[in-house]
Amino acid sequence: MVRVREMDAADIEAVSTIRVRGWQAAYTGVVPRTYLDAMTVEGDARQREQWFSRAGRTSRDLVALGDRGPVGWICFGPCRSEVPGPGPVGEVHALYVSPDLTGRGIGRVLLDEAHARMRSQGFEVSALWVLRDNHPAQCFYGRAGYLADGAAQDDVYDGITLTELRYQRVL
Predict the structure, then answer these.
(1) What is the DSSP letter of 159?
(2) Crossing angle (nearest 10°) for helices 12-26 and 41-52
(3) How many CB atoms lie within 10 A of CB 39?
(4) Range of the domain at 30
(5) Residue 130: its pLDDT value, please?
(6) How is residue 155 annotated by DSSP?
(7) Does residue 47 fall inside a structural domain?
(8) In a domain, 27, yes or no
(9) In-domain check, residue 135
């Protein structure tokens, strides 16, 4: 299987590859093709290097390691928006697995570890956002105990507005 550890700077290129290839696989038919085709590992890695070295960053990053190195990545931390809930709310900001390895439990291992770490940081609820038309992700998070809470927000990708739905679960 895989083991999970904190991401470090040496993982940036692998994580950018996982993220870009993950977007291009998961969002085909959902996000405009022009947007997906314009994504590059190099551009993502440059942004990730800046973000990863930012002082005062409150989010955490974990990687799942397989026999070929990082094969999955999750980013989580304090919720970036107000969410009604019984206590402090954390947020899963991103979760991606190498497209050729989806469906093998790697995402669930990462999510479970993030949940454990959020609980240890005092969070009582986890929230996340999923594109309305990303049904596989909605099913994945539903199996992990997340439910849509009725909140929605719009994002624009190459002039096309796509709606994201917020999901929550008690930790």
Answers:
(1) T
(2) 130
(3) 16
(4) 3-127
(5) 97
(6) E
(7) yes
(8) yes
(9) no
pLDDT at 85: 67
**CB neighbours of residue 150 within 10 Å:** 7
DSSP string over 50-71: HHHT-TT---EEEEEEETTEEE
- 115's tokens: 């949940």
DSSP code of residue 136: H
Over the chain (171 residues), the average pLDDT of each successive run of 10 is 95 98 95 97 96 88 96 96 82 97 96 98 96 96 97 95 97 95
Taking alpha carbons only, the member of 96, 94, 85 closest to residue 124 is 85
Element (H, E) at 36: helix 33-38
Total structural domains in the chain?
1
Quote the pTM value: 0.93
Residue 66, domain member (yes or no): yes
